[in-house]
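Work Package 4 report. The design task specified in the project plan requires that, given a folded chain encoded as structure tokens, an amino acid be chosen for each position. We show below one input record used in the internal validation round.
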């Protein structure tokens, strides 16, 4: 398992707070003393050019901010003037000679938030780490300032469900996929056919 190097940070009220508990633990995490308060109207800046998958990931962040902490966020693009605390999604070219790492990402939090990766898959995992880092105990949603660099330790991170023997409705499957994504799992194995049932529509 990866281990994270972390230190406590100060809350907006001045109280020392422990670093966020992240699943899975990132390879590297370094926190400073401050916290960034997340406010309504938070902007999510798309990269230029922007693949459709990155727009979808920005939508995941916007929707989860609303669902988890009640923050309304706006997806923006181009040369938009950004307010403090904005989230920048950045696709960066791979370093020459470096091994391909499409699921690696870097998350930096200071006056604003920057999530960078070479591939949309890495951006998604950076978004999920950001969402896990949000703390509401002070009464205001906030995240610790610092930098996280991470990449999955294993390429295949799977869950198997068995709807052939025990029926699972679509809402349950959709919720399961959301939880898997939050934990950076990337393979869902559905056991759909057995002598007990045939789960394909026919």
């Amino acid at each position: 398992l990866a281990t994270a190097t972390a230190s406590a940070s100060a809350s907006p009220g001045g109280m020392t707070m422990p670093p966020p508990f992240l699943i899975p633990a990132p390879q590297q995490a370094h926190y400073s003393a401050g916290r960034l308060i997340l406010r309504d109207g938070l902007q999510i800046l798309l990269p230029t050019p922007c693949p459709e998958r990155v727009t979808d990931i920005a939508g995941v962040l916007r929707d989860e901010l609303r669902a988890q902490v009640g923050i309304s966020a706006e997806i923006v693009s181009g040369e938009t003037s950004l307010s403090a605390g904005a989230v920048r999604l950045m696709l960066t070219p791979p370093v020459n000679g470096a091994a391909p790492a499409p699921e690696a990402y870097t998350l930096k939090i200071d006056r604003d938030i920057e999530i960078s990766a070479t591939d949309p898959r890495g951006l998604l995992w950076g978004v999920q780490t950001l969402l896990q880092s949000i703390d509401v105990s002070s009464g205001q949603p906030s995240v610790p300032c610092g930098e996280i660099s991470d990449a999955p330790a294993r390429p295949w991170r799977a869950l198997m469900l068995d709807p052939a023997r025990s029926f699972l409705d679509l809402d349950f499957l959709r919720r399961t996929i959301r939880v898997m994504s939050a934990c950076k799992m990337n393979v869902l194995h559905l056991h759909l056919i057995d002598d007990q049932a045939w789960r394909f529509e026919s």
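The first strand starts at residue 9 and ends at 10. Validation will be extended to a larger panel in the next phase.
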